[in-house]
Records
---
Amino acid sequence: MIGYGKAAAALAAAVLRHLPGPFIGLASVPKGYEAGQEHVLQNAGIRLFAAGHPLPDANSVQAAHCALSLLRTATSRDRVLFLATGGGSATLAAPLPPLTLQDKQDIVRHLVLSGAPIEDINLVRRHLSAVKGGRLAAAARQAGRRATFVISDVVGDDPALVASGPSIPATPSPEAARAILTRHRAPHQTKWEAVLAGLACAGREAEPDSCDPVFLLATGADLLQTAATIAQSAGLDVIDLGDRITGDAEETGRAHAALARRLLTTRRAPCLVLSGGELTVRVRHAAGRGGPNLTYLAAMLQELRGEQGIAALAADTDGRDGSSGHAGGVITAQSWQKLQEEGMSVHAFLAANETLQLFTHLDGLLATGPIPLNVNDFRAILVVPHHG
């Protein structure tokens, strides 16, 4: 059993409870996501790594090499189970030579700060890694059976994109990776050019040849459906905007504020507007602290300007919204009132990418600690019409 990502320890413990063993293997999770499973996994022969995130570290490299070594010993009598969860791109790292771990960190950090979409970043990761894009599963080609359990943190729920798909076959596309790296002027060009040139020369030999089963265990849509059921049982109407909302956090926040305003006048009964997906933030100041969900809420707050009858919550389901250290936050009409009393400007906080500081002032932070799950963002807007 090889697990990677934020839910890997919790999922590995669940597998141990429900599937017959014995097992050997490992789970590599971001620091803080051990989920209290250290002794359970250790006693069952599963080694637990606490690795770097969002950038890989030495533990990420050690976990990847341990996984490769273990999988290469698999025989036709063995069954291999991969546990793929969000965050696994960082917790398993094996840069292809001549790239080093530091080079890989520099490249990923540069792409993030350049505003590259996560899909592009993960495509690059797949091409510069000895474990991503199906290469991890290829190490266990002698195994009798291989399967992957997935908890999806990607819009569209493509298993090949979760954790950059270590166990999912992906046809190499060096030219696509080169275009992304060139467009964003990524550092260490000589080295990544050498890696991509090697993949291009390998041609079809680089393509994984697996058709192993993949089981999707949980998605953002599942979370929204659960939330809708709870809301409806409490007597609320529900408007589900879906789990595939992407784009700029500020623009989406303003659009959702406008929608909430319209619902105030067109609805008679209270309703809950649900949405998921993955929003992005325009990084103007790299030193700023915050995240997409706090940015979304700040934009809503600025647009609503204390409108009565509207409250909103937005959070990352892994318990960490960007660099904020918190899951997300909440706003109400009183949030705007407090801003006015203290003479603060939402625009100034947004311009400085300091939404953490804004919500600290508002006492509007949602603090959960690390959650061993990641099905992307969760947003809920409560609209209570004045005549409702």
---
Amino acid sequence: MLKNQVQQLDKEMPLYLVEKEYMKENNISFEENGGNEKIENRFLGAYIERSNKETDELIATESDSFLSESISYFKKQKAEFLYVESKWFHIIAIDAVSLEVDDVFGTYEAMLGLKLKKNQEKTIKSFLDRELLEGEKKYNLMFNQQDGLWDLNITLDAVEGFEETNTVGEVIGSLYQFIFHLLVEVEKT
């Protein structure tokens, strides 16, 4: 699955480091054209909206410039969450991601629907347990029978490299790479 997605991506645009590493590890040829720019630039043109957590009411549809906003914006605006759709998310088996600050714990959270089979639970949990940094609340994973996908909430503070000074774009790029590595793990099983 991932192999086909990345090969198709290679035809459309330069690959980023995480994708090039995957191609090399699997002895798959690819175009060695560029790809040294920041991964968060891939999400330029994404659909971005800020909404109220209580009511889901749309506050604003944002332009690409919001990707340069510090993720700490959501510490100041705890009543808001960010919803992002990108045409590149299909590569990592998701449609969209929501980002917010948890009202109780004050941690940064990412929520997404992961399009993986129910029987892959053990591999998913093993990856998350191994890759997320120690902490009280790291993730919540539940299979949604109705949608046929995994509802995954990740505490971003537990993702290696996450900093409160990161931009929204950097956080989305890091999350993309994290989920990409999860899919590589699932593909091996």
---
Amino acid sequence: SVDYGPVFVQEPDDIIFPTDSDEKKVALNCEVRGNPVPSYRWLRNGTEIDLESDYRYSLIDGTFIINNPNEAKDSGHYQCLATNTFGSILSREATLQFA
């Protein structure tokens, strides 16, 4: 098998979350190929998100899930950072807004 650095399969898209939505979560999608398998981190407004800091956050594969989204805490610009031994790639910014 050939080793190579991370390559995006899917980058996150802008999301407008309707505040009256019954859907109580937001999913920011990120998918990367690489060998060895890359690890994922997420940034909000340029700062890495500590997934342990808020029980509402979870990471499923590369997708960042926010349960019970909160405009004051969660609106902003998100980026996905994927890393393996060959390097890191940073996604475009995806903006999460509430409407």
---
Amino acid sequence: MKEQKIGTFIQQLRKENNLTQKELGEQLNITDKAISKWERGLSCPDISLIIPLARILGVSASELLNGCKDSEPPSKKTETIIEEALEYSDRTSKNRLEKIKMGVLIFCSVTFLLTVFICFICDFYITGRLTWSLVVTASLVFSWLLLLPLLKAKQGCIKMTLYVLSVTIFIYLFVLGQILNLPLVYTLGSAVSGVSLAGIWCMYFLFYQLKHRLWGAFGGLFLLAIAVSLTINHLTSYFLKDYTSDMISDAVNVISLVILSMICFAVDRYVAKKRY
């Protein structure tokens, strides 16, 4: 009941300020779908958004939380106390999350180290030297490096992870090729990884630019998948001379992805018309 009251109040204030759901979402750096859920009483704004949302809508934080305007405006001291309490609660939640992330990182690091140690012992005991355990070690180091920005980056953790992936994947493939004494692991792996990374980065920027139009973003993603899959097939046939791709399967995949893309674009167009 409280959520419905706050949602109706947010909708009323948004319209009074001549803002669309999309415009309000952009100012708060969230999607218009989140605004829609607030206004329908399906969810409430995150505590970190209460103060900026109240300022954009031109009301006090206490009025926003009560879901109505006060007959008498709250004193500046009262409003300051409320804002400080909200900021403290938000800060406490973030600190708790950081502690959880640190705990996960420590647990994973210790687990990885123990795994490497056990693999070294088993490998040396069985073969008399280090063989397959080096593959395990390289893979765990690669995984740990990818895990690091996800758990330690203050903001933009996905982008930071992509940066790390873009650099470490080629080093990992080179090391793997040297350990296995298979140059193809590095040459073919690097070519496929390069194309895949280009696709992943395009996907990242696609969803970033169309974060308020997810159906359109998915439509673009399906078209992007066609280009990536066909390029990888071509590279595979270039490096592996005896490899022949199945033309029928490729055609079916391309047609399926085109159909899915068209459906997504049609839904995106329908949603856009309905919204405006």
